[in-house]
Write a structure and sequence with these properties.
- The chain is mainly alpha-helical.
- The chain contains four helices and no strands.
- Helix 2 packs across helix 3.
- The chain is elongated, with a radius of gyration of 21 Å.
Length: 111
């Protein structure tokens, strides 16, 4: 076994445990907890069984190199997360703007 096959699962276990603890403390939603635990589990599986996972992914995507296939999938995954997070930030900004307007109008009515 290579060194990364020990390090990646240890890191994954650490972060999965943190996510579960945050969920128990009511600091994380159920859906995001499941998502992140699955993500860290998949990362561990990829570290333990790199060829058994990456070669079929490369075949499905039609990419000759299994390393390139994993990098391609990881980049796509990261871009989808960034897109989702930017949508969440925009929604929060809109909600804050509406809240500030409402508070300003309420304060104006009281004066």
């Amino acid at each position: 076994m290579e060194i990364y096959q020990w390090i990646v699962p240890l890191i994954s276990i650490t972060y999965a445990t943190r996510v579960i603890i945050q969920y128990r403390r009511k600091k994380r939603l159920y859906t995001s907890t499941i998502f992140w635990v699955l993500f860290w589990t998949a990362l561990s599986a990829l570290a333990f069984l790199p060829n058994e996972i990456s070669v079929p992914v490369a075949r499905i995507l039609g990419i000759k190199s299994n390393v390139n296939a994993i990098i391609f999938v990881a980049l796509g995954f990261m871009f989808s997360i960034v897109f989702y997070l930017s949508a969440v930030v925009e929604k929060l900004e809109s909600q804050i703007t509406e809240l500030v307007r409402k508070i300003a109008l309420d304060n104006d009515d009281q004066d």
